[in-house]
Amino acid sequence: MPASDLLAQYPHRRFNPLTREWILVSPHRAKRPWHGQVEKHAEPASVRYDPGCYLCPGNMRAGGHRNPAYESTFVFDNDFPALLPDAQEAAVDESGLLVAETERGICRVVCFSPDHSLSVSRLPRESIEDVVEAWVEQYNELGAIPWIRSVQIFENRGDMMGASNPHPHCQIWANSTLPGELSKELAAFGGRGGCLLCDYLAIEKTRRARIVLENDAFTVVAPFWAVWPFETLVISRRHLSAMDQFEPGERGALADVLKRITTRYDNLFETPFPYTMGFHQRPTDGGAHDGFHFHAHFYPPLLRSAAVRKFMVGYEMLGNPQRDITAESAAERLGALSDRHYLETAR
Ligand code: H2U
Ligand code: ZN
Q1: Ligand nearest to the CA of 107
Q2: pTM for this one?
């Protein structure tokens, strides 16, 4: 039997070349009965304006700030920032065991639209392009601050992923040191002759077993080393290291793939599909980092229905991450879904 068929049947380890970590895949296990936690079926937000929402136009936020009557995107400094720009410098190091240092940073929130009821999957493409434009501006503006070395843009969608509010929005944390995931990836990109993701895309294009969707500028794959059941990786087809290198068509193309993958996610279990998504881009520490390849990760927790999620506990916390369905079967399911949102086809 070919090795790939055996891997589809038997427990095996897969290597993540971006983080240089292993994950355990147990394809035979997806059939087991489940008597664990059942999540409530989340309904999409129904009102376009919620007077109690701190992100809706014209409403009050914490600390007495009032949102303007914004009509497209709206960016503001997080009222409860995890990082502060003016933290006093201090460091301790006791025998290499008690090691700490102050960290400076800037945290912002980006509202995608004034419409409280929408999500990336349901926003018009042009509105998502406005969001991409806001991200590019923020990457440039924050990245230009001399002590900012990394600009992390991320969206938590849904209660299950800790989002505090259904109003479409994301966060940006820009800080003075490189976060762990970016550091691992940077080392992986630097440790190879050619570009890791250009080479990976070339392999995926010949096999096509894990490609979920693509357009002229971006390919979405269920990566070979995926950990979360329906995890995907959005990779620019052109080698570019950050959003500041987008050509005009690439902003629209990114909006297109983001809308399509989030629509398919919603369609999978006919539910507003929770996820954490975010971009990994070139550090803004002044280095060239030409070898870094721009991409986005989608980490969604759902496994078998709107109600059954994957838990990263037990062996995952103590050993290695583990998954029950293969990346190939996840790609096949996502690839077969429509680009038309289930709420729109129902009308
Ligand atoms: P999340 O939904 O991903 O938690 O993002 C919302 C952010 O909005 C969160 O980081 C901030 C929270 O600190 N926030 C404000 O800045 N002002 C408010 O009035 C409430 C929440
Ligand atoms: Zn709102």
Answers
A1: 1
A2: 0.95
